[in-house]
Amino acid sequence: VHVGAAARREHARRLVEQTRDHPPLAGAELLLAVLLEEFRDAAAGRTLDLVADSPCTPVLIARQPGDLDDLCRTIETFAATGRPFYADPVLDPIHHGFTRSVGRYATLRERYPDCPMLMGIGNLSELTHADTLGLNTLLMGIVSELGITAVLTTEVSRHCVSVVREVDRARRVMFAAREDNMPPRHIDESLLALHERKPFPY
């Protein structure tokens, strides 16, 4: 989307106004990587103060990677405040705990059926030199099955330049398949890039 100079100036003006009202989190909608000790001890950081003074939604993580029990304690601590949040068990790269990390999302959903969850998928798409369309389609299938309501992705590496578009298409296909209680097939062929569904006319 092309943004003209006037629109950019207006955006900058609004950011300046927001900075005056909320200096630490001007314009922020999400606060990533919030830890339990930052709720318990203000000396450990101003994260709790930032959340309290801002309308942003925090994303809760464990203090140590893979410590699901710690994440659960953080969820319960923050849930008591009545504020909205997301919980992120953190998706690890392949050969650095990827399979276990997928299991953490499933376990967290079992423990908290209604907990808002976020999955950051860049650790897979950015750190795997493979076509991202298939990776993202599979991840959106996991997101759909587990009822994860937010994803965080990036387009930093050159092979990831179309990731946002791929994720958007895949999530729509998975939503339609889930609503019809069927596998994600015969819905849309835009997720087929290397092979056609019917490669031969005969």
Q: How would you characterize the largest beta sheet?
A: 3 strands, parallel
> How many helix segments?
8
Oligomer: single chain
The 3D shape can be described as globular
Indicate the proportion of strand residues: 5-15%
The helical percent reads: 40-55%
Broad structural category: mainly alpha
Task: Summarize this structure briefly.
This protein is mainly α and 202 residues long. Helices cover 44% and strands 8% of the residues.
Please give a structural write-up.
The chain starts with a helix and ends in a 23-residue tail after the last helix. Helices cover 44% and strands 8% of the residues. The protein is globular. With 202 residues, it is mainly α. A three-stranded parallel beta sheet has the order 1-2-3. The protein has eight helices and five strands; from the N terminus they run H-E-H-H-E-H-E-H-E-H-H-E-H. Helix 7 (132-146) crosses helix 8 (163-179).
Characteristics:
202 residues, mainly alpha, two-stranded parallel sheet, globular
Topology of this structure?
Blueprint lengths: L4 H17 L8 E5 L2 H4 L6 H6 L4 E4 L7 H12 L6 E2 L10 H14 L6 E3 L1 H4 L6 H15 L3 E3 L10 H17 L23
Parallel strand pairs: 1-2, 2-3, 4-5
Helix pairs in contact: 7-8
